[in-house]
Design goal:
The structure holds 2 protein chains of 2 kinds.
Chain A lengths: L5 E7 H11 L2 E6 L6 H9 L1 H6 L9 H13 L3 E7 L2 H4 L1 H10 L5 E7 L13 H7 L3 E2 L4 H18 L3 E6 H4 L2 E7 L21 H24 L3 E4 L7 E5 L1 H8 L9 E4 L1 E2 L3 H10 L3 E4 L5 H7 L8 E2 L14 H7 L26 H13 L6 E3 L24 H11 L5 E6 H17 L5 E6 L17 H8 L6 E5 L5 H13 L4 E6 L3 H11 L1
Parallel strand pairs in A: 2-3, 3-4, 4-6, 5-6, 9-10, 9-12, 12-13, 14-15, 15-16, 16-18, 17-18
Antiparallel strand pairs in A: 1-7, 5-11, 8-10
Helix pairs in contact in A: 1-2, 1-8, 4-6, 6-7, 15-19, 16-17, 17-18
Chain B lengths: L8 E4 L2 H6 L10 E5 L12 H10 L3 E4 L1 H8 L5 H13 L3 H12 L4 H22 L1
Parallel strand pairs in B: 1-2, 2-3
Helix pairs in contact in B: 3-4, 3-6, 4-6, 5-6
The chains are: A alpha/beta, B mainly alpha.
Chain lengths: 536, 133
């Protein structure tokens, strides 16, 4: 038997989790790229063990397909992981919530990477609400080493309880590096096997009514398990004027301010459901409780309730910590009553550098041509979507009127046309189109809605760093296959020298009183440079 | 995440960016190590003279034309190694160990690449040592 050794590596939180999963016998990762989760899947795609084992790591079309594919692998007894950014949870909410109803066979980890402060997101929703809502246990690593260790622990919990497990990450954990000690001998993959209890996998009402009671019973057991878990630790200390509950990465920020140990009792929470008995102990033994958590006041609200009584609770809701945005060691310092550190003066001459579309980006040509055409109409509306081309809202383009969620450009343009809007234009990228634009396009095709859909195709998922796009080479076929009239599915290269031709094509299709799709195509300048360098 | 006043070093390949988080430095011990060549892709980039003046007026700054040094010593692509060398005396990691790391990282690309990067690193190190002493 090979001896298990340890190797130390400098890893991103995302990479630590990915390596932990591989070493725990992962058979497949399923994901759609999304900041800050993307590097998990990319690490597995390039990892030597994963490649030699043929661990599945191809990108999925969206988070819902990814979740279902992972559930299918779990059904067959193998360990699977699905990764997404927090808003991806909205896309996969249906299979996610129902995966607690089916339960699992092989271990199943659902990674939700939250982005508090919205560094690269449209909101700062906290995925712990989803997990509780679905009765799915959760790990919330406080550092990179825990991200590694918890991968194996989550698979073990998932298989023992036959439940999916959420791994809640946050931007600063995903995207910062630390030394991680890991096994150098990856565990074998699981053999193919089928679920022992077959009824719960068919969610007809008769089966679901039985299973729901079982889910609630398991949830109670999971809570007792949380109360005894080494990942939830009650660290007593002499000063009981205040107790501090710190979850996930917030525990790190807290302890950083007390290099010699915290003078107040600390309850570190990194496993959910919430460990009630440990929280009750803190309420008994401490005069007040400060809750330090990254994201929304999930724990704080549960402690506080609607009728505030009992131990005073402090946190984001009472103003000791900021109500919005991510935490920082500075914010935590102030909340525990420590004075701010002496710091160097900030510069007053630094100018912001807002993000901008690259020079040589085809999206630029699309917006130039579109703006020039739409200037001829009294009240044009352009519905945008999620991707680099969202930057078309900014100067100098100021070209779009809405950006909501993946795919909403097409469906909002259709709804606007239903309301009588003309011109009603949708601008969507190729990857966003195959993620969530195709189904909406079918609605518009079926009613021959008078909208113009511009698919600005850069042959990649550009905003997240150039991952493969699932529709590359097939966009026109997809549109025609869905039933778009072939003469109104048109293609042009997004190039400055095509400006007049682009304008002409856009105008013709805007004036056509029905559904049209224009695929405006030019390879992303970033991936084009990489491809050129690779050829050298 | 670093607390305001807890940073030991701000390192930057661009001078205005070196100042962006300068307020995070420890006011008594913190260093700035930066390139002096601006990257101007915005219309309201401050006057270069103001950027230079502020860098000069701050204590503990190592600022030099990293691009020119890299080009002269090795190749324009080795500016990051020049900058690493310039940070070396401040990092608390022995420069020899950093050089070993460079050899390991670039080893697969051949001796010529290793040598060029070591040369760039040593140049940055020499610049820093001349400022620090």
């Amino acid at each position: 038997m090979p001896t298990m050794g340890h190797i130390k590596q400098l890893l991103l939180g995302d990479e630590a989790l990915a390596l932990g999963a591989i070493n725990a016998g992962l058979s497949g990762v399923y994901a759609y790229p999304g900041t800050p989760s993307t590097e998990i899947t990319e690490y597995i795609q390039s990892n030597a063990v994963a490649r030699s084992r043929g661990i599945h790591s191809h990108w999925s079309s969206n988070e819902k397909t990814a979740m279902e594919e992972a559930l299918g692998m779990s059904f067959c007894g193998k360990r699977a992981m699905v990764c997404m950014k927090h808003v991806g949870m909205n896309v996969c909410a249906d299979p996610f919530v129902n995966s607690a109803m089916t339960g699992t066979n092989g271990g199943l980890i659902v990674v939700a990477a939250d982005d508090p402060s919205m560094h690269s997101s449209q909101n700062e929703q906290d995925s712990r609400f989803y997990a509780e809502f679905a009765f799915i246990p959760t790990f919330e690593p406080s550092n990179q080493q825990e991200a590694y260790d918890m991968a194996a622990a989550a698979f073990e919990l998932s298989e023992r309880r036959q439940m999916p497990v959420m791994m809640r990450m946050v931007t600063r954990l995903c995207h910062s590096r630390a030394v991680v000690a890991g096994d150098d001998t990856p565990a074998p993959e699981r053999a193919l096997s089928y679920p022992e209890h077959t009824r719960q996998w068919v969610l007809m009402p008769g089966n679901s009514k039985v299973r729901y009671k079982e889910v609630l019973r398991i949830w109670d057991e999971l809570r007792r398990e949380s109360e005894a878990s080494p990942y939830n630790k009650y660290i007593d200390a002499p000063d009981h004027s205040m107790g501090i509950i710190a979850s996930g990465i917030a525990y790190n920020y807290l302890m950083e301010n007390f290099p010699d140990g915290c003078p107040f009792p600390v309850l570190k929470i990194t496993q959910y459901p919430l460990p009630h008995s440990l929280i009750q102990r803190m309420a008994r033994e401490c005069k007040s409780i400060l809750v330090v958590e990254e994201g929304q006041p999930f724990i704080e609200e549960r402690l506080r309730g609607i009728i505030d009584h009992g131990t005073p609770v402090k946190g984001r809701l009472s103003g000791e910590l900021p109500r919005t945005g991510e935490l920082s060691p500075d914010a935590v310092r102030a909340a525990v009553g420590l004075p701010a550190l002496d710091c160097a003066t900030a510069s007053e001459i630094v100018a912001p550098r807002p993000p901008a579309l690259c020079q040589g980006c085809g999206h630029r040509d699309v917006y130039h041509a579109l703006n020039d055409v739409l200037a001829q109409y009294p009240s044009p509306k352009v519905f945008g979507d999620i991707g680099c081309y969202t930057l078309g809202w900014l100067a100098p383009f100021n070209a779009i009127d809405s950006v909501v969620d993946m795919g909403a450009s097409i469906t909002m343009a259709k709804g606007a046309a239903d309301a009588g809007q003309h011109p009603s234009v949708a601008v969507i990228g190729d990857s966003t189109f195959t993620h969530s634009g195709m189904t909406g396009l079918l609605d518009a095709i079926n009613e021959n809605s008078p909208i113009t859909v511009i698919i600005s195709d850069n042959l990649t998922t550009g905003m997240t760093g150039g991952q493969d796009s699932q529709g590359t080479g097939k966009l026109e076929d997809i549109c025609r296959g869905l039933g778009a009239a072939p003469e109104h599915v048109r293609t042009i290269d997004s190039l400055p020298r095509n400006h007049d031709d682009m304008m002409r094509m856009f105008k013709e299709e805007i004036d056509y009183p029905g559904l049209s799709v224009i695929v405006s195509r030019r390879e992303c300048i970033q991936t084009a440079r990489r491809h050129a360098a690779a050829k050298k | 995440m670093i607390a305001r006043g807890a940073a030991d070093l701000v390192v930057s390949l661009e001078p205005m960016e070196a100042l962006r988080y300068a307020g995070y430095l420890n006011p008594h011990t913190g260093w700035i190590v930066t390139n002096t060549v601006p990257f101007v892709n915005i219309t309201n980039y401050p006057e270069m003279s103001a950027v230079e003046a502020e860098l000069q007026q701050r204590p503990r700054v190592i600022a030099f034309d990293v691009d020119a040094a890299a080009k002269e010593i090795a190749s324009p692509r080795s500016s990051n190694m020049v900058l690493l060398g310039a940070c070396a005396p401040i990092l608390g990691i022995a420069p020899d160990l950093l050089a070993d790391g460079i050899r390991r990282v670039f080893g697969a690309k051949g001796q010529a690449i290793v040598d060029a990067n070591i040369k760039a690193f040593n140049h940055g190190l020499a610049v820093a040592q001349s400022v620090i002493k």
